[in-house]
User: Fold this.
Amino acid sequence: MTAYALLIVLVAVERLAELVVARRNAAWSRRNGGVEYGRGHYPVMVLLHTGLLAGCLAEVAWAGRPFLPALGWPMLALALAAQALRWWCIATLGPRWNTRVIVVPALPLVTAGPYRLLSHPNYLAVLAEGVALPLVHTAWLTATCFTLLNLPLLAVRLRCENAALTRCVAPAPEPVG
Assistant:
């Protein structure tokens, strides 16, 4: 349990680092005319993601969930891969990445990095982590509850983000020749 608690604390520290980056990027976006969309769902998202971390620790402690190596090690690898994908997204979007939906009008869509493969790769990372992180220590109830609550929230988030991008993003330049 101690190693798992340390993992959850490290993920919480990583989340705080994300918030520092997001705050800096939000200031950049606002200085450049950025418009925020979907403020209403943001507090729910923060609560749910905080609940994921708390649920991981609580379920393992209160329900006595064991570490099963055949499940735990692959789930740890998946959770780490989700973190790598998330930071690839952050690096690719640069100052345009945020935990909020803030779009700077007239900037073209990013089509580099993981965005050349998927429209919303960060949400794949969120889905993978929501399943994998609890299952590192067999917290199946937390994995299930987070996923079932996150799916409708993610649907709202995707609709909001897609609508914002459709309204604000500059069209891709036409090929010459």
Summary: Residues 119 and 162 are 9 Å apart (CA to CA).
